[in-house]
Amino acid sequence: MRNDFEKAIHFRHACKLFDSSKTMSGEDLTFILEAGRLSPSSFGMEQWQFFVVRDIAMREAIQAVAWNQSQITTASELIAIAYKKNVRSTEDYIRSEFEKFNYPDYLQNMYTQWIDPRSDDGLECWSSRQVYIAAANMMSAAASIGIDSCPMEGFDRNAVEKIMGIDTSVYGVPLLIPFGYRAQEQQPRLRSELSELVTYL
Ligand SMILES: Cc1cc2nc3c(=O)[nH]c(=O)nc-3n(C[C@H](O)[C@H](O)[C@H](O)COP(=O)(O)O)c2cc1C
To answer: Looking at ligand 1, which atom is closest to the CA of residue 15?
Structure first.
């Protein structure tokens, strides 16, 4: 298992060039989406939504506002990772999550005291942090079955949300992830040494 995961994290790279002739199976897509669904989130609030963008014209329009990055249209699937904006404890969605998990009062109170007072921007920041965890799991899951990905923030977010017809009072789309198959070998990976990154206290 350790070897499998090691292989996956070495396989994964930010794929710059996809082979547009290769398509992934629906089963593989579901496997990747499941990795997102089963990801951890603060209080288990699952404040993510995954939009699978298949419409060709929509993908071309997105590419045009994403520095013309080719991955948007050449990857087999494009998943837009969205977070929910309205996550105060008064929201129906949050109340239904409390019910689903049968959260005791003390946890609901903790949520109300810790999360609710945040500014709208602060709440969006908190929610988007959760969806990046799901995104990372999805890319690792993809790598474990030989599927490439590229996390992408390089796009005009307002324009992309408009093109996708997102209700921006409900969702924000901070990240796009194309998934598919590399068209060329990955470049050697440049990383700092663990000794530079880890501090033992
Ligand atoms: C949040 C985030 C946004 C990124 N946005 C882009 C992007 O718009 N286009 C792109 O080609 N790569 C993008 N990348 C990929 C990074 O450039 C890449 O992960 C980094 O250089 C390390 O390389 P590796 O992933 O191949 O190890 C992004 C990565 C992250 C985590």
So the answer is: 26
